[in-house]
Design brief:
The protein is mainly alpha-helical. It has 12 helices and no strands. α2 runs antiparallel to α3 and α10 runs antiparallel to α11. The longest helix has 30 residues. The chain is globular, with a radius of gyration of 21 Å.
């Protein structure tokens, strides 16, 4: 009798869809806006997470080149995304603390960050950058066609997922003991990578893994908002040990309070998923995991 086994979600069609969807945004969204920049960056992050998951079963040279190309494409858009996010955070804070912002009306940095340069939030001279992003994604999409994806060993895929999980656990321990911006950002990136990879293991335990994905999505969203607030503090060029306008000190306290709120939502979820000593099998809803 043939041994029963569970087929994981097919990887190559999903990977191709991430890249094709990216190209559709680039080709048909003119001019590209901040929401589309966000969607595009998410698709490229998903594609990179998949490429890392299959790295040990594909042509190494192609894989390294593809991951590097997609990372470069995302990096080219980082400033576009940051400008839009910082402006939105300031808008939300202004709505919550109108009297405080009334006293900050002459703050040059805040005024500059609050200005929307154009309707799309994307620089008017972005055409060359968009063309470069398109080139990088298109070449990656073309190379992917020649990667053999018909015989991925699910046990090797699971082994790669375990590596991602172990790395996320390590980064959780680092930032739990020393919650600096750099460590929190690294934990968020690795958690997102784990989130995008675990998607392909849904057939093992669909309900448990979807629940895990929901928890990871909420956790990484709070981490993202936390890191964005760090970026705002950096943009404000604030130094607490210097003499500052009292209203600027108050604004920073409000920003720190928001960071505290996001952290309070992160730690309980992160501890349940990434607590040291916990096995990946139990995270996926199994006592012992055999594919």
């Amino acid at each position: 009798m043939e041994k029963e086994y569970i087929r994981l979600k097919e990887i190559k069609p999903e990977l191709a869809d991430y890249l094709n969807s990216s190209l559709r945004i680039i080709n048909y969204s003119q001019p590209i806006d901040s929401k589309e920049v966000h969607d595009l960056r998410v698709l490229l992050k998903k594609a990179r997470a998949v490429l890392k998951l299959i790295a040990s079963q594909v042509i190494p040279d192609y894989n390294v080149k593809d991951i590097t190309s997609l990372r470069e494409a995302s990096k080219l858009m980082s400033d576009w995304r940051d400008n839009s996010v910082l402006r939105k955070i300031l808008k939300d804070l202004r709505k919550e603390y109108p009297s405080l912002f009334g006293r900050l009306v002459n703050n040059e940095i805040i005024n500059k960050l609050s200005v929307k340069n154009n309707e799309t939030s994307i620089p008017l001279d972005a055409d060359l950058t968009i063309a470069k992003i398109k080139e990088l994604v298109h070449k990656t999409s073309y190379r992917i066609r020649f990667q053999n994806a018909d015989a991925f060993d699910p046990n090797i895929l699971l082994s790669e997922l375990e590596k991602t999980y172990a790395d996320a656990v390590k980064r959780f321990v680092f930032c739990r003991n020393d919650p600096t911006e750099k460590k929190l950002h690294a934990f968020r990136k690795k958690s997102k990578e784990f989130l995008y990879q675990v998607f392909f293991f849904r057939p093992l335990n669909n309900r448990a893994i979807k629940d895990l994905e929901d928890k990871l999505t909420g956790m990484t969203r709070n981490l993202g908002k936390l890191v964005d607030l760090f970026q705002l503090l950096k943009a404000l060029d604030y130094k607490y040990y210097e003499v500052n306008p009292i209203e600027l000190d108050e604004l920073v306290v409000r920003i720190r309070e928001r960071q505290d709120e996001h952290l309070r939502k992160v730690w309980p979820v992160a501890s349940k998923i990434f607590c040291p000593g916990r096995k990946l099998a139990s995270v996926l809803g199994y006592k012992t995991l055999i594919i």
